[in-house]
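May I ask you to comment on the folded chain given beneath this request?
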Amino acid sequence: MPPCSETSVLLLPMVERCITLLQTYGVSSLTKLRQIHAFSIRHGVSIADAEMGKHLIFYLVSLPSPPPMSYAHKVFSKIEKPINIFIWNTLIRGYAECDSNYSVSAVSLYREMKVSGLVEPDTHTYPFLLKAVTKMADVRLGETIHSVVIRSGFGSLIFAQNSLLHLYANCGDLSNAYKVFDKMPEKDLVAWNSVINGFVENGKPDEALALYTEMDSKGIKPDGFTIVSLLSACAKIGALTLGKRVHVYMIKVGLTRNLHSSNVLLDLYARCGRVEEARIVFDEMVDKNSVSWTSLIVGLAVNGFGKEAIELFRVMDSKEGLLPCEITFVGILYACSHCGMVKEGFEYFRRMREEYKIKPRIEHFGCMVDLLARAGQVKEAFEYIMKMPMQPNVVIWRTLLGACTVHGESDLAEYSRLQILQLEPNHSGDYVLLSNMYASEQRWSDVQKIRKQMLRDGVRKVPGHSLVEVGNRVHEFLMGDKSHPKSEEIYAKLKEMTDRLRLEGYVPQISNVYVDVEEEEKENALVYHSEKIAIAFMLISTPERSPVRVVKNLRVCGDCHSAIKLVSKVYNREIVVRDRSRFHHFKNGSCSCQDYW
């Protein structure tokens, strides 16, 4: 069709002009494209013309998100012989860059291309296709395409390798991700970022930091994506020293103006119990969004500064004009829960629904149950669960079970345990909570039944451990741990601590030892809790009056809480303990939680 081809050549500059219109007019460029398309048809250019179709599809796919993919696909379907791989790749790319609902269309188009036999995939096809599969989180399909990539001879291409690496990491298949990474002869920054972020997102922050150390030793400079992953890893394990080094690097390269990086930095300081530094980062941010405000609100709440969190919310609400989101209210309700502000919590829950039209999620109902349970209103918490408009999850029942053990509600505890068994059987913490409650009531035969049941079910108790950081190294301690090279010095300090605390009036709370042994043995057991060993290590390893930070995987027991309050006074140290649910800031013999946790 020579006339048609000649006309299309004349019209192509007009189509190319649309890219300028796209940048200048934004959404209106779609209208312009439709007009040119109509004009070309009126002047004899068939929609089946491959050259015209190629350009039209390219500019349709390049429109602001979401691009009109149905329109682009209609144009594609009218092309008589789409023998140009560029057309197929463009359409696959368009689907891959949309949300996950379009990813299946990208895979279907790839299969159509293979069946048609008109063209063969090239170096650009598979990275786009793998991007779509990544959004689908279909690791089996990814493995199938991986084998096709290798057979096609594209396995050594850096773009294909990076796409495969990102796919496996995003799907949580870290074993295959690392295999791809390890076999790459040349690793660019994208590859390092993908595997580091994969470790962070899949609960392996230690491995992420180790990999960054290797990357750093090779002289590869991090970018903003690396920084975000690093800060997230540091926040998860409480590696404040490394986090501060990353902060210094951010200042040097000007990343502190990056909103996303600054938000993660703020979160790091809040998670490490350094609320003052978090507030400084927040105050120095040139731009703040609702994530920034929410991060600080939640940070204040979990650190025990509930009233400050609520006051910050009032400022955000009244002066900044930013709308709170679902997570913001999780932080507010958490603050009310950990400060015993029952009435205020219910009022904020009402406002969330009625003023901000936010539909409560299971997390919000969980906060309300926790609010009542922590205030000792266990039966009211149970009634609240029964009236919830959705089925309570295992977290809510576990919250009630924990409250029952604290407040001695045996019948409700056993009922909660039965509900948990239906949702998540064989979780060691549930057995332990029930066993501890029986032990506190000296029901030793019931304690033995629970322990025998754990053995029958093959359930092992998660050991308590405490982490502390000295220099650039994180040290881990278990209960009664003597594996550390400085164990002799640590235990000498531990004895000194115990003696000095007794002079201050410390009396071991043997009720926190849930085994049927003599009182002297119970007192000895309390001495060797992991957080006390960790604090003794910090006292011999850090300068006098310097703060001590401890990260513990379980809830701090009442005896340790009382002892650490006295340690902060006797040794003139600020001690911050982050347990599984909140922070405790010990200073001058008192705690930020006001003994309410």
Summary: The first strand starts at residue 465 and ends at 470. DSSP finds 30 helices and six strands in the chain. The longest helix spans residues 2-25. The radius of gyration is 30 Å.
